[in-house]
Amino acid sequence: QVQLEESGGGLVQPGGSLRLSCAASGSIYRISAMGWYRQAPGAQREVVAVITPGGTTTYADSVKGRVTISRDSAKNTVHLQMNSLKAEDTAVYYCNADVYTSASPFAQPFSSWGQGTQVTVSS
Q1: CB 108 within 8 A of CB 99
Q2: Mean of per-residue pLDDT scores for the chain
Q3: CB–CB of 93/38 below 8 Å?
Q4: Cα(100)–Cα(30) distance, rounded to whole angstroms?
């Protein structure tokens, strides 16, 4: 069993900043990719940013230059620093991690999700 717990969401004015954090716990052997996704009302869930164990990052075009993803693999945590926030960034933000629970060379990762944290950008 693996749990992901997000924190750091809230209400912020346009142009403001927020830092989201996510901590993974449970039966974890290792984690490969970690990422942040978001879902606005009436919209599909979309990727915001992803980071590999080696630190390679990928960002959605809509957040490039405003958002930075980082991770601490020793602590199984991932963070999302969001700056210059816009109203269209309003959404529930979800943490995701591809988790291996076994050292077996045949093990496959499973995708684990947090419960989501609300980010609202409004004046």
Answers
A1: no
A2: 96
A3: yes
A4: 5
Q: Residue 45, SS3?
A: coil
β-sheet bridge partners, residue 121 = 12
Identify residue 80 by its one-letter amino acid code: L
Residue 1: pLDDT band (50, 70, 90) is: confident
In the numeric block, the tokens 């230059």 are attached to 65
Main-chain dihedrals φ then ψ at residue 44, nearest 5 degrees: -80, 155
Cα(70)–Cα(78) distance, rounded to whole angstroms? 6
Cα 110 from Cα 89, distance rounded (Å): 28
Q: How far apart are CA 34 and CA 98, in angstroms?
A: 6
- Token readout for 112 is 């684990």
